[in-house]
Amino acid sequence: MYGALWRILPGPWWLRLLIMLVLAAAAVYALFTWVFPWVDHILNPINVTVE
Amino acid sequence: MSVVGVFGELLVTAGVLILLFLGWQLWWNDAIMAGQQSQAASGQSSKWIEDERAARGDAPAPDPADYGDPIVDTTEYGNGEPLAVMYVPRFNTPGTVDSVRTVAQGYGLDVLNSFELGVGHYPETQMPGEVGNFAIAAHRSAYGGGMHEIEQLQLGDGIFIQTKDGWYTYRFRDFEYVTPDSVDVLAPVPHHPDLQPSDRLVTLTTCNPLYSTAERLIAYGVLESWQPLSAGPPAEIAADVARWEQ
C-alpha cells in the first residue's frame, strides 16, 4: 500500500520523501480539524457528575 | 503485494489513527479548549466588574465593615446561562492566570464540553454565598480540564467565586472519593439530606482517577468571607484579576 504509493511518486528519493511528508501533514491536519471533532461528538464520552 | 501485507498495513494505520485521536483529545484539543475557556471567563469577569462600575458611577465603595451577609443571587438561570466565574490559583499553570472558568447553569455536555463555559452548576443545589451547598462539576482531563489539578489542593487554598454581585472566598477543606451515584455529596449538608444546613459550602465534583470515569473526586470548601464587587477583588487575588481584566 505505502510501498505502491512510493513507487508511483515521481522524482528522486528526497522529493518522494518530501511529498510523503506533506501528504502525512495534510492528513493529520484534516484529522485534527474535521474528523476527530466529529468522532468525539459521536463517542460522547466522559462523565464527571454525580447523578 | 500480498493481501496479508495490505491488511497488516491497514492495521498499523488504524493503530496510529487511534493514538493520534487520543493525543488530539487529551492534549491538543484540551489545550485549545483550556485557553478559550480561560479567555472567555476572563471576559465574563471583566464584564461584571465593568457593569458594576458603570452602575455605581461616582459613589464611593462601601466601608469594609458593613458588607453584612453575602448577597445571594435569586435569578432563575436557564440551562447554559453563565452565573459565576470560578478562580482557583492552585489550578494555574505557574506564572499564568489560566485557571479562570465560567460557571454556567446545568451540567450537560453543552456546558462541560463548551469552548466558552466548562464548569456546570447543579441546578438543584444552592447559589454562591447561600447557606447550604454550591455544587459544581468540570472535566478532570480533556475538554479544557477545569479541575485538572484538583488533587493538588491543600488545606486552606482559596476557591474564589465571582458573580455579578460580589466575590465569595471559599477555603478548601477536604477531599472525598466516591462512586458516581453518590448524589448525597450534593445535599445542603453533604451525606445528610435530612439535616438543616448552617454552613455555606462549595462542592467541586470531577472524575477520578485521572483519565478514568470509574469514580468521582469531591473537594469541599467553606465560605470564609464575601465582598461586593464595588469593594474590588479579594486582596489575595487582586494582582491576578488585574492581569485578566480587559
TrEMBL record, chain A:
Keywords of this entry: Membrane, Transmembrane, Transmembrane helix
Top-level taxonomic group: Bacteria
Residue stretches spanning the membrane: 13-36
Listed name of the protein: DUF4175 domain-containing protein
Species this chain originates from: Agromyces mediolanus (Corynebacterium mediolanum)
Classification of source organism: Bacteria, Bacillati, Actinomycetota, Actinomycetes, Micrococcales
From TrEMBL, chain B:
Biased composition (Low complexity): 57-67
Keyword terms: Hydrolase, Membrane, Transmembrane, Transmembrane helix
Gene3D superfamilies in alphabetical order: Sortase
Residue numbers spanned by region Disordered: 43-67
Pfam family, one: Sortase
Stored SUPFAM superfamilies: Sortase
Protein name: Class E sortase
